[in-house]
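Incident review: delayed structure delivery

Summary: a single-chain prediction request sat in the queue longer than the usual turnaround. Root cause was a stuck worker, restarted by the on-call engineer. No data loss occurred. The affected request and its eventual output are reproduced below so the record is complete for anyone auditing the incident later.

Affected input:
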Amino acid sequence: MAKHLDETMKIGTIGLVRRNTAETVTKVRLATNTPKDSPARWHNLLFTGKLASVAWQWLRPGQTLLIRGDNTYGSYKKDGVEHETHSVFVDYMNILSDPKDRAEIPQDSTAEFLAEEEEFGSEIVENE
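Output delivered after worker restart:
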């Protein structure tokens, strides 16, 4: 039987890697494959604890990543409109591509992601 009932596994291409200034959380945007001629499906991944430091050190946009984690759902209000959020708290990751081999990053509609950054809190540092 599974450890958690709301657990998920995903394989995709890393789009963004960020962390908060307290260096306690690393946030990653992961694009997963969709049917041909469809836009990429983007997922918010949250790494905490020691895994946050490892993710910050090793993950770069364009890499292929496999993750396993627990789904979490939330919401926030902006301009009087309530928006729902979905994130995966990652407890396992495996980098599937060589750091030198980076795939093309699908185009992202970042408006939703940037709005969620307010909820993420504090100043955000981008990983290059």
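Verification: The mean pLDDT is 79.
Action items: add queue-age alerting; document worker restart procedure.
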